[in-house]
Amino acid sequence: MSNLSDHSPVVAQITDKRRLLEVAFVAITAIGKFVMMDLLELRFPFIVTVILGWTVYVIIRRKAIRGIFRYWGLTDSHFGQTVRKVIPFALVSLLACVAVGYYRDTIQLTWHIIPILILYPLWGTVQQFLTIGLVAGNLQDLKGKKLPSWAIILTTASLFGIIHLPYWWLVLGTFLLAFFYAYVYLKIRNLWVLGLLHGWLGAIFFYTVVGRDPFQEVFGPLLSLQ
Q1: Which of 46, 60, 68, 131 has the fewest CB atoms found within 10 Å of its own CB?
Q2: Are 138 and 25 in contact (CB under 8 A)?
Q3: Taking the CA of residue 149 as centre, how many other CA atoms within 13 Å lie in the half-sphere pointing to its CB?
Q4: CB atoms inside a 10 Å sphere around CB 140
Q5: What are the CA-CA distances from residue 140 to residues 23, 70, 189 (Å)?
Q6: What is the pLDDT, as a whole number, of residue 170?
Q7: How far apart are CA 223 and CA 185, in angstroms?
Q8: How many whole angstroms separate alpha carbon 55 and alpha carbon 52?
Q9: What is the pLDDT of residue 226?
Q10: Quick count: other Cβ atoms within 10 Å of Cβ 69?
Q11: CA 76, CA 186: separation in Å to the nearest integer?
């Protein structure tokens, strides 16, 4: 069962128009990723802009609607319950990353993974807020035409996978991650757990399966790393 009965006062204050606009702006953010990160290779400016821009929006909405943080899953509510849900998935994913990386000979161990393990959960939480919180959450709570849970989960996972084109291993990995996350979120809302796990698994995924160095990609141009 979903825990959304706890949030009925918040749900009542959010119109379908607002929900669809939020989904639309998430899509615009995704388009910005293709332009800024993939085309122009301005990864760091894009990430900073997205974090700051959506943080401002979150603060504004918190002032407008009391309890919206708990509704979104940005509190410690259901933290332990969510952890217990995701631990088996995390362990299987970790083993799969190492196995696939070993098979593809793409494992690269470098000290760069340490700052990524520390910093990436913040970026992972932002991504989960946008994709899972605003897309899956808003589609679930539309007052008009109700979508079945499977359609919401598939739509959310597909969107998150597509965002990571043209890297097909990333598309596959993020699709599976978002598929599981959306399933969990529709039942139990805690974005902190999902964001932390996203950051840690994402870092490991990059340095094992994908064989890329996100630290170099994001901070290299700033620090003139070779």
Answers
A1: 60
A2: no
A3: 11
A4: 20
A5: 12, 16, 12
A6: 87
A7: 38
A8: 5
A9: 47
A10: 16
A11: 17
Tell me, rounded to whole angstroms, the distance of Cα 70 from its chain centroid.
17
pLDDT for 125 equals 94
Residue 89 to residue 176: CA distance in whole angstroms: 10
* Three state DSSP letters for 37-105: HHHCCCHHHHHHHHHHHHHHHHHHHHHHCCCHHHHHCCCCCCHHHHHHHHHHHHHHHHHHHHHHHHHHC
The span from the CA of 66 to the CA of 56, in Å, is 16
Instruction: Indicate the pLDDT class of residue 15, thresholds 50, 70 and 90.
Output: very high
**Contacts of residue 132, Cβ cutoff 8 Å, sequence gap at least 6:** 156, 178, 181, 182, 185, 191, 194
Quickly count: other Cβ atoms within 10 Å of residue 144's Cβ.
7
Compute, in degrees rounded to 10, the torsion defined by CA atoms 162, 163, 164, 168. Answer: 10
**Is the predicted pLDDT of residue 225 greater than 60, yes or no?**
no
Whether 109 shows a pLDDT value over 90: the answer reads no
Cα 38–42–46 angle (5° rounding)? 95
